[in-house]
Amino acid sequence: MSGLKNSPFGKRLRATQQDPDEEGPRRSRPRTNPVFGVAPASTPSLDSSIPSTSESGEPESPAELHRLHKDYGDRFVPSRDAGDLRTSYNLMGESGPSTPSRNRAVPTESDAAKEQANAIFTSILHTEVTPPSPRRPVSPVRPSASSSNATTAPSTPSRRRLFSYNSPSGSNPSTPTRRLDIPTDEAYSMSPVREESRQILESPRRQLRNVSKTPYRVLDAPELADDFYLNLVDWSSTNVLGVGLGSSVYLWTAHTAAVSKLCDLTSTNDMASSVSWVQKGSTLAVGTLSGRLHIYDAHTLQLQRTYQQAHSQRIGALAWNAHVLSSGSRDRMVHHRDVREPDTRPFRKSAGHRQEVCGLRWNADGAAHGGLLASGGNDNKVCIWDLRSSRRPATRSGASNAEDGGSSTSAAAPLPSGDSPLWKFHEHTAAVKALAWDPHVPGVLATGGGTQDKHIRFWNVQFGSMLSELDTGSQVCNLTWSLTSHEIVSTHGYSSTAAQNQICIWKYPSLDMVASLTGHTSRVLYLAMSPDGETIVTGAGDETLRFWNAFPKRDGGEARRESQLDYGRLIR
């Protein structure tokens, strides 16, 4: 070592460690790393009560120590200071770690194939982790006579059989001696999973329907009101879309994508609050904020007649039943008018709500329960009206009149004759705007509640009872049934979870979600269906109209079915 100190290399090394301009012992000076040119960080003490000090005598900060070790350490040590155990041991998305949200009642993305695959994976995982009990039964042991008496000491058997022979016909094939004779035994299987898991994988699966998650067309709708109580979008049987935008009403023809302006209410200082097409034809009814009711011919773009004092306040809901036009208003009344009569006064008025009527829907399907009108109000009530007859079912025992505020043992109570509703449902806890009659099962009505309710309920209007309910987790703004499949679509707004502004398709009666469509940035307040039943259009407060291919086409066999009245096919 002495030779190394006196060598030229040792002298140069000592010169780099000692500054000739400074005096004092070399031990007091910090040693400098000749490679990086900085002093190495002091090693922290194991005793937490003794703080580590820097050159100036002040304790070094943990951040400074961490920086020095991180930049100039001799080995890589990953740092998890910025995260926690949850984010450190899980894959983090591009947006970084986020606080987990509450349980979502409605998933943000629901793909049918993905949901089915997840269910199968969960079943297989459960089968592999917790396998069923072994199928090899244990042979029962016959208790000996000595075991019956606990005080008797055990005795060694005098004779002992070392080998036991039995015939294959009398043996149990599930015993270990014969299990290898079974060709399907797990010992011969080359699959990495159990037989139960293979049966799950090889079992037939139900046919899934894929729904496009993106709209095929988006139209701008400036001045489309963001008001829950209005109904400003409707699709006619002639494939023309009517939209109320501010003080004007526009028509969009689906075949040609042509846009025409039907009316402008600026001269009367009024605005459109509801639009509704007649079931068959080109007649469009327009309700206004001032309570006026206009009837237009969309084919000629001409005004046919006007009811100047249809209501004392705004008309938020309209519904047609052939030539009968029903209108619901903020004045809590439902008026029924025959547009063929010259009289402007309604031939009947229905008073069943204590707040604004925001939903109306006729069940004019010509069936046994056709001709019923459902109305929903801001008083959280749903009323069923029968204008065909004044007969009402007798009051059942245990049921009370809903108008008297009494409680009832059933879902609804039949009310006396007159202008009172046939049934009145009280189960909703928020405004009911969404109403839809099932076109496949007569007498079934679906209703949706607002922000404080978030439920879709299904009713049997024949008996006045609730069939089922669905908690959607968000405000239900609109409902409509599919014409080609037994499914129902709902649009949503405010939500207590992160899933908002969705369009959901549900299978009935299982109430399983078929698809969830997203794209609107505001409440999806408006919904209409094309006459062929394949396309829906949604409108929101973001002033856009989005068109979705939501439902499958009609059955081709039904369209090609030959009619017995088609005499043209008999002509040769």
List key phrases describing it.
572 residues; mainly beta; 4-stranded antiparallel beta sheet; 28% strand; WD40 repeat-like protein
Can you tell me about this structure?
- It comes from Russula earlei.
- This is WD40 repeat-like protein.
- The chain has 572 residues and is mostly beta strands.
- Helices cover 10% and strands 28% of the residues.
- The protein has seven helices and 28 strands.
- A four-stranded antiparallel β-sheet has the order 1-28-27-26, with no helix packed on it. A four-stranded antiparallel β-sheet has the order 2-3-4-5, with no helix packed on it. A four-stranded antiparallel β-sheet has the order 6-7-8-9, with no helix packed on it.
- β3 and β4 form a beta hairpin.
- α5 runs antiparallel to α6.
- The model is unreliable at 20-60, 82-110, 135-141, 145-150, 390-410, 413-418 and 557-570 (pLDDT under 50).
